[in-house]
Every structure is written in structure tokens, then in C-alpha cells.
Protein 1
Amino acid sequence: MKNKKINIVTLGCSKNVVDSEKLMKQLEAGGYSVTHDSNDFSAGTVIINTCGFINDAKEESIDNILRYVRARESGHIENLYVMGCLAERYIDALQAEIPEVDRYFGVNNIADILKETGITYRPDLSISRTLTGPEHYAYLKVSEGCDRSCAFCAIPAIRGKCVSRSVGELVSEAEQLAKSGVKELILIAQDLSYYGLDLYKKRMLPELVSELLNIQSLEWIRLHYLYPADFPLELIGMISENPRICRYIDIPIQHISDKILGMMKRSHGRAETEAILHKIRQEIPGTAIRTTLIAGHPGETKKEFNELLEFVRKFRFDRLGVFAYSHEEEGG
Amino acid sequence: MKRREDRFFVGRTEFDSPEVDQEVLISNEFNLKTGNFYNVKITRSSEFDLYGIPV
């Protein structure tokens, strides 16, 4: 390749950001100069890390691919690659519809992408990353995939079942991040509540958090996010006793009506949801409770919507994200 | 303290996560350093953000 510069464009969630950061580290170790800029068209090679979740995000990913296809026609771009969830999910359609892309890669195949750029994957750098955000905070992805089968969600179809990373590996990665200046570590996964069950046959989030607290330069540890059913209750005591774990509970309940929760194939009903929310509010004084809700799920009538509205009014979440239902072909 | 913009430093509280939650804006006349923690007194608010001064 003539131009030894690679630009990575990351779309979608923080989990994608982590994948891009690991790829960037490997590319730099292989001798490339790497940028992370969605408006940089000067690199010889461009890799777009896409999102395949809900329609707006898919459109944004496709728009960005087309932007770089057009830039390539008139500029310096020699190689254009597309990776990530959209490519994993729609590789055949993408190859047929946008053949100008040199190659599509799905998820979890960093070694193949590196091979395409002429370098070999280095296992010794598996926990190393080139941070793309401010250096004082970073995400730590504790697992891949999800074992839940929520009706509205295609993540398990794209990313597969939950695969937890070991406590030891995560602590090593966190130590590296702390050494490079990270003060706030944000734990992410499709479902933190599940962490460890596949690998250790038990839920291990409290143990993982305890180990991470031993890294003294981490001033804040934040958890994103905790599924309401199987919420690790041990955490409640830990958070209320330890000021370094943010009093911030992100618990996506999606709805409150038993009928809709059933149709969503969630494993919690209204009573369990209310019980855990009240327990958190009572036992961790001052905590911010964040949730996300879906409005307009199939089967929702005015009656269930009003039930949800009434609940939101009464409970008064501290932070709230509300999304209109977006149909997924491969929901659970 | 997250970053410096034209007129404000942009920070976050313990109760806010990057990208998804609100921010705390502090006038850049104060001598603050990005990446540090500060105690801030909230003086006013807008639709989505809080404004404050270091104490």
C-alpha cells in the first residue's frame, strides 16, 4: 500500500468504539499511522465500523459507506473496508448492493482485517487500545453477545450468545487504561447482570467490581447496564458503601405493563420491576436511576401506553431515554 | 472536567454518563484542568444542562 495511513470511522455504540480502539492499536503496531475521524478523506485505507441495530442506525451506517464510496471516486482512498454489526447481519445484500467496498468483515474477526492490510494479529496486544476519546475516561467491555431473547432485539442474532471475558484479563486491561491516565472506567456489556454465568457458572459482576476497585487511580467506576431480572443485589450494598462506584444505576426496564413485558419476552413483570426499582432507591440514597423505554411495541394499545405513562409520572426516573419501536427481522 | 469549549468548561457529575446524559457547564474564566475532579455549586439550569461555579 502506498499511503500508510488508515482512517477508522466508528458508528453506533460504545461497544463498537472499544472494537475500533483495539483494531487501531494493532494497526499502529503494524506500522500504520491511524486516525479516527468520520470526516477525514485523506487516508489510503478507510475502515468503517458499522452499527446494525434499529433502522435509523442502519441508515446512518449505509449513508457513511456511500459517502466514502463517493470520496473514493475522486480522492486518495485506495482501499475501503466495512466491518461491524451491519456487515455481519447483511453481508450478502451489502456485497450485492454496494460492490464498490473492497471487502466486508463481520464482528469478532480482527485477525482477518489485519491480514487484509498486510499485518499479523499480535495476541500480546489483545488487551491494548488506542483511546479515541478524552484520556480520563474509557469503556471496559466485559462480555460479547447476549443470552436474552427479547422480542424487539436482534443483538443475539448479530453478536451471538454471551461470552464473558475473564476477571483477570479485564483487570489487566483496566490496569493498562489506568496507567495511561483513565480515572473513570465505564463497564459495558449487552447485559452486565449476566456477566460470568457462561464462564464461571455464576454471576461475577460484584467480584469483578471488587477487583477493579483495587486499582487505586480509578476514581470512578460506572456500570452500563443492568437487566432488571437477576439484578445482582450484592451490588446495592457495595455501591452504597463505596463512593468510587458511581451512584448511577442504568436499568433498562423497556415497559411496565405485564402484557407488553410478556410480549417483549422479558423475564420480569411489573411487580418484580417495581420491587427492584424501589429497593435501589431506598437502599442507595441519592442514586440516579436511569432507564430506557420503548413506546409503540406491537400489541401496545392506549391502555398499556397510559399505564406506562402513569408509572413514569409516579416513579420519576432521574434519567430517561425513550425510543419509538423499530421492527427487527431477527428479534428473539 | 471533560473538555474546554469556547465559553465553557464542560463537566459531568457522578449521576451522568458521557454521550447519553446532561453536562455541567462552567465559565472558562476559572482556572480548571481537563480530567480533574472539582466540587461545583449549581447556579442555574437550561433544558438539558446545568451551569455552575467551582467551590
Protein 2
Amino acid sequence: VIIEPGAPVPEFTLRRGDGRRFTRADLEGDTTVLVFYPFAFSPVCTDQLNLYDEVLDELTAAGATVYGVSCDATYSQTAFRERLGVRIEQLSDFEPKGAACRAFGVYHEGGFPQRALVIVGPDARVRWSYQAASTSELPGANLIFDALAAT
Amino acid sequence: LTGLRSAPVPEPGGADHVRGPADAPLIIEYGDFECPYCAALSLRLEQVTCRLVFRHFPVRSSHPRAWPAACAAEAADRQGRFWEMHDLLFSDPGRLEDPHLWRRAERLGLDLDRFEADRRSEAVRDRVRGDFRSGVRAGVVTTPTVFTAGRMHAGRFDVARLS
């Protein structure tokens, strides 16, 4: 089950595009939107990240830093980001596969992240979380703006 | 910071591009002119009776020419030829560079200087941006997204649902 609002974010390790670690400590002091998506290059994920990138300046203005998270390898994520032409930084949950996704309660038994959104406050506690009803559902950017405004 | 929070899809209004009989089933489409599924939908919609509202939903990283194409359609609208430009854009979505846009404007007999100034104007950009933002607020993510009978349909839309 996806991590609930109010819960402290558990310890986790993801990898940035340059191979550096991204951990719980990197969430502290910022409002962070984690966009969990099933697969790089899959059609629905493409539309979702493209749209969030289109409104990225306004998400930034609302005080949020946005990251895409999947179990794809760093190189695949970088290729995906460059292919799309989006600025959103990608974080890889490749090895041990899905460990961070499990910690957030968004790992799909099929071996990939559920399509889910988690907003973490500067205190590294979850402010809001949302899991799509199916991996083909496309969560609108409006949901993120609602959550940023409400909490 | 509340500009993109959720809001219902706006009812058709005076600023909208609308065609079709007033008593036909209403379709509000969020589309872009570089989107092949939108072009296909446009052809299928010609085969049914409906009242179509077209709103722009260009996303730069998906379709880099969608923005200029949307602005070209709005510039044509300033000379009363929105739907003609809409149809010409969807009839050849692989050709959306500036010279292709100028050729379409010529074909429609538009005042080219005015077309060129309008399509680059802030007013036209605001018009396109307004459509896009209303779509984001209504939860649109992809194109085409169609609203009909109060329901949202993302992606390919079966026009047979209208009858």
C-alpha cells in the first residue's frame, strides 16, 4: 500500500543520472514531488512526463522539485529524458531492484513501479500520495497543484 | 500559485471555436496539430454529425511544432479562417515548419503580413495558453482528449459513442 500522508519517509537509496546516491537526506529542506512511473519509453509514461515538464516552471514556482522514479537503469533513464527533451531529473531504483519503490509502497508485483505520485515536505514527511487506479491512468498535473496548495 | 488547480472543463463560450449544428451531440476536444491521433480523429469526426469545440493542447516536448501550428490557427482566426486552417493543418501534419504554415496561409488567401504578426503576438500566445491551462485544470494529460456528455476520454476516441 502506498505510503500515507504524515508518515516519515523511510530510508532509501536511488541513483541520480550521474551515478550519485539520492537518499532521504536529499529530501530534507525541500518540497519534493516524486513521480513513480512504470517504464522508460512506454507510451503513457511519455505523455505524463511531457506534460509535467510543460508546467515545470509553475511547479518550481510553487516551491516543488520534481523527480521521475523508475526501476530502469540510469543509462536508460538518461536516454529516455534526452529523447523526450524533458528537464525533469530521473532517479533509478535499479539495484537492488525496486527497493526504494517497496519502501514507498508503490512496487508492482510485475517488477515495476505503480504509477504514483508522492509529495514530501521539507521535514521528510509525506504530505500527499496518490496511486493511479491502473497503470494506464494518467494523473493530471492539476492533482499536484491541488496537493501543493492544500497542504 | 493556484493557477493550475483542478477545475471543471469550461462550458463552450464566446472565445471558443465551435462548428456543427447546435442540437448535435457536443464534443469538446483538446488537441494539437502535430498529433497523428488528433488528425485521425479529425477525419472521423467529419463522418458524424456533432457540435465540435476545438481547444489547443500543445506540449512542447511531445510535439515541438504544435505550438507554432496552434498559433497559426489562431492567426488565421483573426482573419476569420480558423476552421479552414484547422483542416489544412490536420490534412498534412508532417509539414508544420514556418514555410509550410505560410503556404497554407497563402492558400487561404490570408493577408500574410498580418498572419505573420498575429501568430507571433502575445495575444495569440495567450489565447493558446488559455486553452492549454483549462485542459490541465480539467485533468487533460494527452492528446486527443475529448469531453462528451460530461465524461473525459483520453487518447483514441471511438466516434461511434456519439450516436
